[in-house]
Amino acid sequence: MELSIALPILILLVAGVIELGRGYSFAMAASNAARDGARHVAGKVSATNGPGLASMCNLVTADLRAVTQTVTCPTQINHAPPFVVGVDYAKPAAGQAVVAVYCGTSLNCAGAAVARLYQSEVDVYVYYGFSDLNLLGGGITISGSSRATTSW
Q1: Range of 51's domain?
Q2: Number of domains within the chain
Q3: What is the pLDDT of residues 117-133, one digit of tens each?
Q4: Against a cut of 0.85, is the pTM above it?
């Protein structure tokens, strides 16, 4: 009798801890991808001030491969953060990621070799739609999203 009363509560607690761990794992993956992307796109090469958005998108997609295969990248935004969902970028569906980038005064985060973009702002946001866990046949739903921000 006591087990039948305590077991549902115990199952909910264990499922909640597992879901919290999953959420933290996805948030760390999004954060690492944003940091790597910002570091990469801010790097200077001999011909330009940065490798450009396509190169950064390939790096972020590779970083997120363990979490999701669907990455919309990059969405370039022409104003400094904060970015507004639905206006500046599309809200990611569950299990998908959207990368939004602000390149400061640079076009395509590449720039010309002549005009150095010293201390120019580069912001990379990775938005991940967290796929929810339905407990007890959908009676309890845990959902959320993860956003990671990196400025370089």
Answers
A1: 2-151
A2: 1
A3: 455 678 888 888 877 66
A4: no
